[in-house]
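Review this chain:
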Amino acid sequence: AVGVAVVDNRVSATLGGDIDITGNLQGKARDAQGIRVDALGANVGGAAGAGVVIGVAKHSSKVSLDVASGASLNAANIDLASISEAAVSLVGRGGSGGILAGVNATIMVARDDSDSRLTVGDNADVLADETLSLSAEARPHVDIYSAGVAIGGLLSAGGTIAVADSTAKAALDLKNGAHL
């Protein structure tokens, strides 16, 4: 059995021109689309049974909120955010058996290497009378479960490999001449 899911979203928002308001200004780019993969397999043979279960779940979205070069944002309170917070969940279960022998392998790989970026462009003004909040956040959540069973009258062999990895990144980039 093989189960594979890859989420590769591109989420972006750009604020440009002149925005001058008396109230609150909020801008947000966010990816929260999680994935779940269930890889399940079973094999039973008369004399012998052998099975392999492979599962892959990967989140590699790019999220960005940009204040364009030369833009002017003015408000009482400004809250700008770029957020990647999707959950990656992978479950693998395999089993095999036979009267004489059973062999099983379960291999699972779950990964989050998403990227979240907030950029204030060259010579852009982001001016708040009271509160200014700029944030780029990566909140990866990688969850993995792997189990395998092999049953045989004379021979049973099995192995389970589970790899969970996160290299998610977040960056706040202030370009030349940006005014806060």
Notes: The mean pLDDT is 94. The radius of gyration is 24 Å. The longest strand covers residues 125-138.
